[in-house]
Amino acid sequence: MSEHATERLSAYLDGDLAAPDREAVERHLAGCRECAAVLEDLGRLARAVGELEDREPVADLWPGIAGRLASRTSPRVVPIDGARARGRRRFSFTMPQLAAAAIALVVLSGAAVWWGSPRQGDVALDRSLPADGPAPETAGVLVSLEADAAYSDALADLERAFEASRDQLDPATVATVERNLAIIDEAIRQTVEALRADPGSTFLYDHLERSRRQKLDVLRQATPALQAT
Amino acid sequence: MDAAGNGPLIDPSNPGRLPGVQSHVCRNLGRGGTILATDQPRSTGTEKDVELAAAGDTRAFERIYREHAARVHSLARRMMGPEEADDTTQEVFVRVWEKLDTFRGEAAFGTWLHRVAVNLILTRARSRRRHGAWIVDDEEAVESASTGPAPAWSSMDLEAALARLPHGARQVFVLHDVEGYRHEEIAEMLEMAVGTSKSQLHRARMLLRQHLAA
Prior knowledge:
Chain A is an all-alpha fold and 229 residues long.
């Protein structure tokens, strides 16, 4: 059988031929053992394909994936002013630059806590959630926040890096950074509280995300500044 | 289909099937192009994990990875070859993580993830060819295929035979016979004519027959 005729066998097998063509192929098959053998093999191939099973990768690929996720912004965290790119850039601030950045952040954070008065204590997001859990209608939002392991991991890493190089920075600058972190922590804590009362507020949710990013940015910017001194 | 893997869910010409969608045990070859099973949402647990992951929950995303790793890795292995499967799979899930907020819920999540995977794999394949990373060209592969041994017709041997196919024929075969895409869809994805897709499929089947026939 010619190559062209063989191609018709594939179409015949797939049911792609119109009735006249299908009948012509069937008449040919009745008298051509070679084409009948090809068709039989294609049928065997079809059965083998049908028995293919998906296999797990030999190695566990998750650790490598998780490592790459840690350096990426989580899906709903929309970068502000190129925050994603900044996250991969190494900063090298001078002390005056760091101080100026910190002062600017105080202004931003001050505006962020307009809805309530500041309270004492360092409040991280996960620790701020009550042990008895959120109301059922708020569970989705709050559980997702609690479980944001990428944020928690990044925060822990940056806090450790900042602590490790704290002694290399001017005490006044450290104090400025710490004041800003405290303000942001308070903003985060109050936003979580507000979300419990108003879980449908997209403003509060977005503000919480902004506050969290602010905290990461402060730590991220402060730590390379320490390394540069 | 768009870059995010979204696209029309129902094929108007055949409303009984979802384009390019089938379960991992349902193949297209010799079934008259009819898909016998679809990838429906598997559980509310998956839907919840998608929500959590889209909010940044990496533990939920790990559960998604565990559920879909075998399918994505098998697709990558068959399309790209075993040596590229691990890295491609990792890249697929990183891409899915980045695109979770574009998942509109119009298709089952597994369907959407599969489309993201196919798009990324085809992009990588085009890049490999542009940069000459694949040494064996089609003609060499054909010659190699025709001189190989004639193993039994087992899944393992079929997987090995697939890896020896020329890239173009392999892609069309996997997309059509294994993954259930129609020639029209494949032609769009691979930027070729429908007739070329059909001829590549035929070529792949005949080469596989050479490999597998006793």
